[in-house]
Amino acid sequence: MSVCPKEYWVWLQTALGAGAKTADILSYFETPERLYLAGSEEWRLSGLFTEKRINALKSSTPSQTMEVFKECRAKGYTILTPDDVGYPNRLKNLQDMPLVLYGLGDCSVINDELSIGIVGTRNASNYGIETAQKLSYRLAEAGATVVSGGALGIDSEAHAGAMLAKGRTFAFLGCGLSYDYLKENAALRRAITRYGALFSEYQPFSAPSRSSFPIRNRLISGATLGVVVIEAGVKSGSLITADRALEQGKDVFAVPGDIVRSSFDGTNHLIKNGAKPVFSADDILSEYEYKYGDLYDSEKASQPLNTLSYVDYRRPKAKTEKTKTEPLKEKTQVAEVKVNTVPPEGASDEAKAVFGALTQGEMHIDDIVRATNMKMNIVLSSLTELELFGCVQQMPGKKYKLN
Question: Residue 325: pLDDT band by 50, 70, 90 thresholds?
């Protein structure tokens, strides 16, 4: 495939929409640039386009995509197109490969070979939540990269489990990277960019829609070796991901669930129809031992999940308490507010050390490194862990403080 300026890729994806099947189009015209220069008469003669699509192609030009590039430069987003070295080979094999991927974080993570998708319901039970976090922890601890969709419920726990194990993870979003979706997951998304990356095939300010999430699901299965479904009803979007995985020739795994609860009907149905049941990380990774055995630790993968403690990183933030003060003498005088000085239960020793340093007040990242005598990467991962617990917030200028 010839190298093509990125604005032509953005133009074509804008015209045809995310998830469009473009393999035949690119085979015929070779690049979006050649397609654009060919013009509407040749588009018709090719027999590859409906009149509606031809009108869509004519409605914009590559030069009109400059606002997208401006936003990406301002926010530090990476733009990956199929002729980039960093574009994942696994997605190139799709008939409906994304023509553009916008990324934030360490975008090399998308090419991790031992990547496993974890999907499931947003309205997960305690069992589903605990299983997702612990299974993902074991997978990441053993050396696998955990991939999910950045949503609430199973997705969030999958990403969190990988990060608590200090492993790698990445998410495919169903909206643009700049769109303020799911504010309650903002801290989680920031954390993911430190342990991996966020990706979207939608332009930065694109809002989610009813169709954007099912379209997105093919990327979770496409970028991974296999997909694990944890708690999903018969109409769950997670089953769409499982179906796409099967179409793409990927493996499908499922965690057995309560047979009298409808929220597990989908996963139990998958097992009944041939999906491999999962009781440990090794049940998944052992399927790839013949090819990727040197990339993971089988001993860690085989450790039972019940030896892990669930980390409730979403627990309510500790209430602040006011110190006793003299009666206000002036309207501008306010009571002093103290932050919680007890580190969260379940935090690592490194995170507790960083927490202890921050009890002295707001600190620059370099000062935290000096105060804790730990390496920068350890301090950053510890700050991410504390942010997951909701007890630390990042301030402008690479400064941090306790909530």
Answer: very low
